[in-house]
Amino acid sequence: MARTAAGTVDGKVVAITGAARGIGFATARRLIADGAKVAVSDVDEIALKNAVGELGVTTYAVADVTDPESFGAFLDLVERELGPLDVVVNNAGIMPIGPFDRESDRASRRIVEINVLGVIFGSKLALQRMLPRRRGHVVNIASIAGESYVPGGATYCASKHAVKGLTESLRREYRGSGVDFSQVQPTFTNTELITGTSGTKGMRNAEPHEVADAVASLIVKPRPVVRVTRWAGMLAASQNVVPRKVGETVSRALGAEKAFTRIDSAARESYEDRVSSV
């Protein structure tokens, strides 16, 4: 069980979006193991049913994070069945990648709707329930891409910069309210999102369970941000403090600027087709 002098995960009521796969699923599994009362949602009904069967979760809903009514109904269900929300994990996100000039307008819109508006709505809906009780915690899954600049993933990168800015702004706005805001910034994580990409030289990918561990650690002891992996986070953050030419030279040397442009399109086809229909 995740436990320190600061707190515990045990007994916390936690709602997680985008939990049918990847990081969301791993986070649900970790928090359930730690004794949390976990509810999950996803827009993919078939994948969600498979996930809840494996997780043993009884409170779940097919929910669209881009629709405040749908999202709100999920959170209302959680509170009816499990009790007042302690934590909302805004995890749902998509990552279509490729040349910006070839990105469809629909793909651009959906990235912003899911990755940005979904987090805005989730944060707002959480606040509306948590502020009257003067307690709660919103954990937003951002990305190392929110600290860096990614050719081939410009719109995705922009969406994660937005999540970073939103989360830090809300953390400061609601300081002292009893509601905490935190963000997790994963690097390349071994989920379906990075299928067919080339990664970065000398840097290992994160595993979903490592991101889940980061979420659990934040619930136990709230902090503004956790980067996974630490080395990737340090490298990305350094781009904002070193001279631009130095940062770009290092990025090119590590192959980071080719990570989303030199891809295996055939390997990635299944994921791109799925998210295009979301």
Q: Helical amount among residues, as a percent range?
A: 40-55%
| Helix/strand class | alpha/beta
Oligomeric description of these chains: single chain
Average pLDDT over all residues: 92
The termini sit apart by: 35 Å
Please write the string of helix (H) and strand (E) elements.
EEEHEHEHEHEHEHEHHH
Please name the CATH topology.
Answer: Rossmann fold
For the biggest sheet, the summary is:
7 strands, parallel
As for the number of domains, it is 1
Q: Quick one: CATH class?
A: Alpha Beta
- Tally of DSSP helical segments: 9
Percentage of residues in DSSP E strands: 5-15%
Residue windows where pLDDT falls under 50 for at least 5 positions = 1-6
CATH superfamily, called what? NAD(P)-binding Rossmann-like Domain
Number of strands: 9
Overall, the morphology is globular
Biggest sheet: strand arrangement:
5-4-3-6-7-8-9
CATH architecture, please? 3-Layer(aba) Sandwich
Give an account of the 3D structure:
By secondary structure, this protein is α/β, with parallel strands linked by helices. It has a single domain, classed as Rossmann fold (3-Layer(aba) Sandwich). The chain is built from 9 helices and 9 strands. It has a 7-stranded parallel β-sheet, with helices on both faces. The chain has a two-stranded antiparallel sheet with strand order 1-2. Helix 1 (22-33) packs across helix 6 (208-220) and helix 4 runs parallel beside helix 5. It is globular, with a radius of gyration of 18 Å.
